[in-house]
Design the sequence.
């Protein structure tokens, strides 16, 4: 019975260890397994009301591209959304969207309401493709090089600093490389 | 200069916190009266210096002193004054300062109002408060100094996320913090009780008002946050199971359990170890919430600029505070046994059920929030848990709790009469059945769960009224006698009935908005009419207007029902040039049966505008219900037994006499 009183402290230290490991994982970095690897094989239909879907071949056509994982139920996606509208307006790099575990109607309305920054969209309704991409949480953003390899991954809300300081310079650098 | 004064005041506060956390606790242990007496002036001093620091930062924000790094990053000279002030806590550094200010405020409140506390208990409580203060002051001074200067101050600041530039959001963090930090009182009292090795009814009587006050603040904070999400984010959602929302909801769930278990300690002198554990865990979850928001282990719309260094510091602090207090609990807890026995069917039994369900619900929310992290730490696999997980685990746990809330208060202490209570609920059962039938009839195709949800809500409201009416024997004796009984009833009884009614209203509100929301969205041109529910909306015109630091697209809609004009709605989309962001200002027409919610978006370039409309039935009942819960809490808080009064003082003296005997 006396041991029962020690249960909370034991559980807590297990939790603390997991949190410490979690801090060390730096969830904002890509898992090393995926970096410089070709994008997973997939083929997704477009989000409702849009006609261009997204599949592996679309990311392996000699063009540098950005892929953004988003969902209408995701608050942070709303925060970073204006940045994507800017990227779209600038027209320097194509931006594709993977709509993660979303209701088709909600996704379509979300894009109609706030604006659709994506050249192509893929509706990943059951999250299967998300697993292949190693999606940790929504939103996430990937930089894909000319050979269709994942070169960089950002987890969480995109900020102006990270976009201008890391993502776009990397895109320019990859675009300058020969095919 | 002002900023340096603030910085210096923080250092002085840290010194005082160190004094406050050592001398009194040693004095209490060794019975050295002058050391015990240090606790009160130290607590006042700590509060004074932190208040000076906070005032200094507020001043820097008001005069837009961009040589202070925090101000430069988070303010802008074009911002309205109120948002300059709210900008003080709208960022990591300032919000930590607000947190500490509130912590020291509670410490000063114990020093000021704690006349009826035995001096040794008070000294121990204040020492524990001082230790928490040391942790947070070190955190601010070492990792997030709000007074850091910039060598080359910018001409203008970086603004504040315009999504956060809103009245609801400006006032909601202070309430949330009052709630979070308020639970530190229950925590300090729990640690002090473990050190003294004694928990008695008097202890529970001191802890309850602090817990109740913290609970009221937290309820207001959560409700305001949810209300903000509803009208600002532009799609009418009111709860997203976002990690930060969960971080505030978990202490609320456990705090609610603590409120109820403290009653058992006070009235029946049992469940002591459990109540102590709850007090520790409630505050631990508040700390965990702080960790989640600031460490970057989970991402969220609310997350401040994250920094692993800060994460490590908070985790170390968390391990020390929570781990240390749970170790103390493992060591001293077993000595807290004893107290009254009770049958499973009794008021105590009902409160234990309440505690079990609330704690389990809290555990599922914790699991859902941290599961992705654990899986990653253990297997490297990455998953995400969305609202579906929470809806399918949390709701089934809440249903038995809600059903039981109506019956629990009718149980007698020690041994209750379940059949009798159910007999008294006859009317409640009929009311619930009637509303279920009406709901089913009105919405034949609607979700079955909605019928059930409305019935549970009505059951809860009816049960609370029946219980309350039974206490004053309404209609069974003459009204004058009922009135006399009503006035004689302790305020806590009125408070409980109201708070439970509030829960019922929240349940009905959630059911209404989740089940029967209708929406209509399309591109509209001026002159066109759209209908939704029984409303017809005519789009009159759209134009651009200028705000203090934004420009907005505003649409004007005439709203009518069956041809009768009822109101005009003017939703806006605002653009903030300094941060290239847009926000939605939905127009909302709230009524008691539901809201009409209108949003206007970008023009399509051909004279049309993207528009979206919702009818959200009963949605305001969610916040109204929360308001009723808080009013119930405040009425209970004003109960004579909770105030510094003669009966309490007598108990204090008695305890003191026992202690010295």
Sequence:
């Amino acid at each position: 019975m006396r041991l029962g009183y020690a249960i909370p402290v034991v559980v807590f230290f297990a939790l603390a260890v997991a949190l410490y490991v979690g801090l060390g994982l730096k969830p904002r970095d890509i898992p090393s397994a995926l970096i410089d690897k070709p994008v997973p094989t997939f083929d997704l239909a477009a989000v409702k009301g849009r006609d261009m879907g997204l599949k592996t071949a679309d990311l392996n056509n000699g063009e540098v591209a950005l892929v953004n994982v988003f969902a209408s139920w995701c608050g942070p996606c709303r925060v970073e959304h204006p940045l994507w509208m800017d990227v779209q307006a600038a027209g320097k790099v194509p931006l594709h969207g993977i709509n993660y575990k979303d209701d088709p109607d909600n996704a379509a309305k979300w894009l109609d309401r706030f604006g659709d920054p994506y050249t192509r969209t893929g509706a990943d309704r059951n999250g299967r493709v998300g697993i292949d991409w190693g999606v940790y949480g929504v939103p996430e953003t990937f930089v894909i090089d000319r050979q269709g390899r994942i070169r960089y991954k950002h987890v969480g809300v995109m900020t102006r600093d990270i976009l201008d300081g890391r993502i776009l310079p990397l895109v320019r650098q990859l675009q300058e490389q020969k095919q | 200069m002002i900023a340096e004064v603030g910085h210096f005041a923080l250092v002085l506060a840290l010194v005082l916190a160190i004094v406050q956390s050592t001398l009194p606790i040693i004095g209490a242990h060794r019975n050295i009266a002058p050391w015990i007496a240090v606790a009160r002036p130290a607590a006042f001093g700590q509060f004074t210096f932190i208040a000076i620091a906070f005032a200094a930062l507020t001043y820097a924000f008001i005069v837009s002193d961009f040589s202070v790094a925090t101000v430069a990053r988070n303010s802008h000279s074009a911002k309205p004054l109120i948002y300059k002030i709210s900008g003080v806590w709208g960022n990591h550094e300032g919000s930590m300062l607000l947190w500490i200010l509130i912590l020291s405020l509670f410490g000063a409140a114990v020093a000021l109002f704690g006349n009826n506390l035995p001096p040794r208990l008070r000294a121990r409580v204040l020492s524990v408060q001082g230790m928490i203060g040391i942790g947070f002051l070190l955190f601010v001074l070492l990792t997030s100094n709000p007074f850091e200067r910039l060598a080359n101050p910018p001409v203008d600041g970086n603004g504040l996320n315009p999504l956060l530039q809103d009245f609801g959001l400006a006032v909601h963090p202070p309430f949330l913090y009052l709630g979070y930090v308020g639970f530190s009182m229950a925590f300090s009292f729990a640690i002090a009780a473990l050190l003294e090795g004694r928990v008695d009814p008097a202890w529970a009587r001191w802890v309850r008002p602090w817990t109740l006050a913290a609970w009221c603040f937290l309820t207001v904070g959560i409700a305001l946050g949810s209300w903000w999400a509803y009208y600002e984010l532009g799609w009418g959602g009111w709860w997203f199971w976002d990690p930060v929302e969960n971080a505030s909801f978990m202490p609320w769930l456990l705090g609610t359990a603590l409120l109820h278990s403290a009653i058992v300690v006070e009235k029946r002198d049992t469940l002591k170890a459990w109540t102590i554990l709850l007090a520790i865990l409630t505050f631990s979850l508040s700390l965990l919430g702080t960790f989640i928001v600031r460490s970057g282990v989970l991402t969220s719309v609310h997350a401040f600029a994250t920094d692993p260094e800060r994460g490590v510091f908070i985790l170390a602090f968390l391990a020390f505070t929570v781990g240390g207090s749970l170790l103390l609990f493992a060591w001293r807890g077993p000595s807290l046994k004893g107290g009254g026995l009770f049958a499973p069917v009794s008021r105590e039994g009902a409160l234990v059920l309440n505690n079990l369900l609330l704690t389990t619900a809290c555990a599922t929310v914790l699991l859902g929030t941290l599961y992705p992290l654990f899986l990653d730490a253990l297997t490297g696999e990455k998953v995400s848990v969305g609202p579906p997980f929470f809806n399918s685990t949390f709701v089934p746990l809440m249903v038995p709790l809600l059903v039981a809330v109506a019956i629990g208060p009718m149980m007698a202490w020690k041994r209750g009469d379940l059949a009798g209570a159910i007999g008294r609920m006859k009317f409640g059962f009929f009311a619930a059945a009637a509303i279920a039938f009406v709901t089913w009839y009105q919405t034949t195709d609607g979700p079955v769960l909605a019928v059930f949800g409305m019935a549970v809500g009505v059951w809860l409201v009816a049960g609370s009224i029946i219980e309350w009416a039974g206490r004053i024997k309404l209609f069974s004796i003459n009204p004058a006698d009922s009135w006399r009984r009503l006035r004689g009833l302790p305020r806590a009884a009125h408070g409980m009935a109201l708070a439970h009614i509030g829960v019922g209203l929240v349940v009905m509100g959630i059911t209404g908005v989740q089940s029967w929301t209708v929406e209509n969205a399309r591109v509209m041109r001026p002159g066109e009419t759209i209908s939704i529910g029984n409303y017809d909306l005519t789009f009159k015109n759209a134009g651009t207007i200028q705000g203090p630091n934004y420009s907005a697209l505003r649409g004007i809609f005439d709203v009518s029902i069956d041809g009768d004009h009822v109101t005009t709605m003017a939703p806006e989309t605002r653009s903030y040039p300094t941060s290239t962001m847009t926000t939605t200002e939905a127009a909302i027409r709230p009524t008691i049966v539901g809201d009409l919610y209108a949003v206007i978006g970008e023009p399509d370039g051909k004279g049309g505008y993207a528009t979206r409309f919702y009818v959200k039935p009963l949605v305001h009942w969610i916040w109204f219900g929360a308001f009723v819960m808080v009013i119930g809490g405040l009425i209970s808080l004003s109960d004579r037994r909770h105030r510094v009064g003669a009966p309490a003082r007598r108990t204090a003296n008695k305890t003191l006499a026992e202690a010295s005997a």
Q: What stands out?
A: Chain B is about 65% helix and 10% strand.
